[in-house]
Amino acid sequence: MRIHPTILEALATIRALNFRRLTNAFKLVASYLLSYYSSNTKLKGLPMAFAIEPTNVCNLKCPECPTGSNLLKRPRGMMDMKHFSQILQQIGPKLLYLNLYVQGEPLMHPNFGLMVRQASKFRLYTSTSTNGHYMNSSIADELVQGKLTRLIFSVDGTSQESYGLYRVGGNFNRVKQSIIDVVRAKQRARSLYPIIVMQFIVFHHNEHEIPKIKKLARSLKVDKLEIKTAQLNNFGKMRPPLNARFSRYADSLGQILKTQTHNRCWRQWHSGTVTWDGRFAPCCYDKDAKFSFGNFLTQPLTELWHGKSSLNFKHQIFTDRSQHDICNNCPEGANLF
C-alpha cells in the first residue's frame, strides 16, 4: 500500500518535534510578529531550519546556476567532516529541518552518507537535492539506512535532448537509473523513506512536456512530482514559459516578479545557511555569501544569529528589502509567513 507523500512528510515532521523545539519555534514566530508590527527588530530563539552546503562543486553546467555558469565568486571546496559535526552539534538540538544542499552537487562529497547518518541522530527532517549522476545502488542503500527523509531528483526533461538543454553535460538515462536505484533500495529495506521527489523546472523549451513528465514520474514510481517555476538570473539565457501558470514572472524576459513583495521575510527569522567553508549566510539566495554574518569556524551560533550583522540585515528587510539585491528575485515577501 502506498502512503500519500503529504502524510509521510507530516509523520517525519511529527517525529522531529519535541518540547524544546516547539518552544523555540514559538519564540521565533513571536519575535517575528513583534518585529513586523513594531519599529524594533527583535529576535528570540535559534533557527528551526538550516541549509548546510556539503560542497559547491558540481559536474553539470546549468546556465541559470552561478556554479554551473562558473560565476560563483567564492572558492570551491568540500566541507570538512569535523566542521560539519561541530556545526551540527550547535544547531541540532533546536532544529526541525536540515537541508543538505545549497550550491553544487552534494553527492560529490565523499562522506555525504555519513553526514546523513550524523544528522539522523538528532531526529531531524533531512532533505537534499541531487542531479543523480553520483548515485548508485550502494549509495542508495546508505541513504535509506541513514534515514534521509526527502530526496529530490532534478529531471527537467523527458528526453536527452530536452533534459540536456538545461542540465548541460547531464545524462538523462543515468538519472532515471539513479531513481530506480533508490526505489529498489527502499523496497529492499522495506522503508517508506526517503520520500522520492522528481522536480521539473519549467522553461519555454520544456513546458509542453508536462504531461510526459507526469507519466514518467508514475512509471518510475516516485512518491511525488513537483512542477517548479524557474528562477532566472541576469547571466542566464533561458526563457520563461509562455503559460503564466508555470512562471514566477509577469514579463516574457523574466525580470519582473508576478507576486507583489513587501518589506518582510519569515525566512530570516526561522532559518539560516552555512557554506562549505563555514560562512553563515542569510539564505540560499545569497549565492556568494556576501551578506555573511560571520563564520561558524570561529564564532558560535548564538553570536552569529543574534549578532549585529544579523540584526541589521533583518532590520533592513522590514524597512526596505530592495536594498538587498539578493531579495529582488525572491517571492518570499509576498506572504507574512
From TrEMBL:
Concerning InterPro entries, the annotation shows: 4Fe4S-binding_SPASM_dom, AdoMet-like_SPASM_containing, Aldolase_TIM, Radical_SAM_PqqE_MftC-like, rSAM, rSAM_sf
In this chain the 4Fe4S-binding SPASM domain maps to 265-331
Gene3D superfamilies referenced in this protein's UniProt entry, alphabetically:
Aldolase class I
What top-level branch of life does the organism fall under? Bacteria
Q: Which cofactor does it need?
A: [4Fe-4S] cluster
The UniProt keyword set, sorted, is: 4Fe-4S, Iron, Iron-sulfur, Metal-binding, S-adenosyl-L-methionine
The record places domain Radical SAM core at 52-216
Name under which the protein is recorded: SPASM domain-containing protein
Q: Taxonomy-wise, where does this protein's organism fall, top ranks first? A: Bacteria, Pseudomonadati, Bacteroidota, Bacteroidia, Marinilabiliales
